[in-house]
Design brief:
Length: 110
């Protein structure tokens, strides 16, 4: 066995966590799988863009916020009214059932 082979065999393997961190800009783009849902909430950015944002990885720096369409607001208002009407109906039923329960206890307890 040569001297170099013996030294390599006896030395511990380097710890990848102890490697120095460099902030060298690169124009490489990070690639990832896109799903239909993620396509509206994600964006691929270059290392240069990340460096320009002081290495901040907060999503708001890279993904914009879509404007709410007027018909979305109308749909929301309509849905909210439907839910409110259903809640009012359920509350009326709850009052009726509470009255029945109270009268049943009166009968049982005398």
């Amino acid at each position: 066995m040569s001297k170099i082979s013996a030294q390599r065999a006896n030395s511990p393997s380097p710890d990848p966590r102890s490697a120095p961190v460099t902030k060298e800009p690169s124009s490489k783009t990070v690639q990832f799988a896109r799903t239909p849902a993620a396509a509206t909430r994600s964006q691929a950015v270059t290392i240069d863009e990340i460096a320009a944002n002081d290495y901040s990885l907060t999503p708001g720096r890279y993904v914009g916020v879509a404007a709410v369409a007027a018909e979305d607001e109308d749909d929301f208002t309509e849905k909210l009214r439907e839910i409110h009407d259903e809640l009012a109906e359920l509350n009326e039923k709850a009052v009726e059932l509470a009255g029945r329960i109270a009268s049943n206890f009166e009968e049982l307890l005398g």
